[in-house]
Structures are given as C-alpha cells and as structure tokens.
Amino acid sequence: METLAPSDEALCKRVAERDGGAFDDLVERYQERAYRIAWSIVRDREDAKDCSQEAFIRLHQSAGTFAGQAKFSTWFYRILVNCCLDHQRRRRGWRRLLGWGGGAEEGESDPIERQPAPFVDPIEAVGAERHMSQIWEAVEELSTKEIAAVLHLSEATVRVHLHRAYTTLKRRFGEQS
Asked: What are the backbone angles phi and psi of residue 85, rounded to the nearest 5°?
C-alpha cells in the first residue's frame, strides 16, 4: 500500500516541533535546488555550499515563524537568497578592509586578479550545456509569481529579466552552433 509523502508545509510544522526526521526530509527534497540557486547567485562552489547550508540552518531555527501565507518553497528560497546576499555583503566588506578594489593606487591591482587564470577542466567544459539545462529546469520549476515573491520584484520585472536572459542565451548558444 502506497503512502503519500507529507507536504513541505507539514514537514516545516514538524521541524518547528523539533522533529529531526522532518528536517532531514526537507533537506533531502531541497538541497540540490538550493545549491543550484545559491551557485547562480554567488558563482562559487564552496560559497554556494556554505550559503545553502546556512539557509537550512536558518530554516531549522525559524521553522516556527512559517505562517503558510506563501508556499513553503517560496519562503525557503527567500531565506536562501538572503543568505547569499548576506554572504556577498560580508565578502565585499572584507575586500574593502583589506584594500582590494576601489582604493588601489595607480598600477596596483586586486591580488586575486593578479593570480593566473584557473585551469579549465575539459570535463567541466563538456558538462556546461548540461549545467545550463539544469539551471533552466530550476528556473522553470517556479512560476513567474513565485520567482517574483522570492526576489521581491514585480511579476513584470521578472518577465523582463527572463526575456533578456533567454535572448542572451539564445544569442550566445546560437553563435556556437
């Protein structure tokens, strides 16, 4: 006999009641998408892992505040995006504190920019198309309304950004074919 899996909202309520199994279920359901979204914002593997883990920690701590006014996924993705934005702000602060960028003397450059370009792994290059399709799958899983809620933008603004992104991708991949 098949049993239905509990909804995300029900699992979140159980997390608020400190049910560790419910938290594990939510992590399992969302960790891959959370990583992909975090990577699309911070563009670094380790930072994306850190941000997605931080989002799950915040989820665990604030599960009791989920009011159910939006879908659980929308609420969680907003937490994730905030973690990524916090991460970027902290990183910018360190760069300023260390004097990297913005205030360098003439002829001096960011120490990171002076590093040689990283080796491009051919396997990763081959997987780029697959990766782009995964990104589009993640975007296509959300409606325009959900994306707008997560990013705190109007639906019209989201449609404009999606159209521009689609046009840019079409132009770039069209040139390669």
From this structure: -65, -40
- The amino acid that residue 107 corresponds to is G
> Is the same domain home to 6 and 89?
yes
This prediction has a pTM of 0.56
CATH of the domain at 20: 1.10.1740.10
- Phi and psi torsions of 113, nearest 5°: -70, -20
Structural domain including 152 reads: 123-177
Mean pLDDT of the chain: 81
3-class secondary-structure state, position 70: coil
74-112 per-position pLDDT tens digit:
999 999 999 999 999 888 866 666 665 554 444 455 555
Picking from 164, 40, 38, 135, the residue whose alpha carbon sits closest to that of residue 156 is 164
Which amino acid, residue 141? E
Long-range contacts of 150-157 (CB under 8 A, 24+ apart): 150/74, 150/77, 150/78, 150/81, 151/81, 152/78
| 109 within domain boundaries | no
Q: Do 51 and 1 lie in a common domain?
A: yes
